Amino acid sequence: xxxxxxxxANLPHGKAEQASKAAVQAGSFGxxxxxxxxxxxxxxxxALGFGDSSRDLLIILSTEKEYRNIFNAIxxxxxxxxxAFGHILGLDADGMAKSGVAFNMGEAGGNAMENGQEKSGxxxxxxxxxxxxxGYADDAMxxxxxxxxxxxxxxxxxxxxxxxxxxxxxxxxxxxxxxxxIVVPQEKRAAVLDAIQSLPCLSQPGSGIAFSAAVGDFTLLxxxx
Length: 225
Hints:
This protein is of the alpha+beta class. Helices cover 24% and strands 40% of the residues.
């Protein structure tokens, strides 16, 4: 296992505070909350404009030693909430930089978790992250859904490329971005990535990027029944 773990908790808007407090009490030094919107797994609701919901994404980097306590604390504090309240996942972080010092770890290994149950072998879930120009996240989600994905979360973002980079490469870089995050079964990862890559909005260099990371832990938040 790597020396650091990345925890991502996808929660309804306004609920990240209670999860963050629980994480701090369990040993976390803090985290980051990003505001986004969820895209419904029901395509009809999405088309009618009723499928979107405001979401908070709580991002915490923890040490390997404190990771399990923090992860379990967030799960526990959400137990009183409604079923399918949100979800939490953990990934191995192979590098970290703080105060100008960078730490790099070797390849991660270990066992996977699915819905809180340990599975041996390779992780069964994959986190696909898509960064596109503003306004195209829904197109990427539609393509991903056709390839077998469920729903996703969109976060408003911005590009950080320098003006010199844009001139040098001859590409018009749009600063306003959207980041789409989708959790899919490992066996659907390649099909979803291929579907997103084939979109017309990603046909030009510099128009976006998509990448995936194996999920180590995944648990649905809220009541179990």
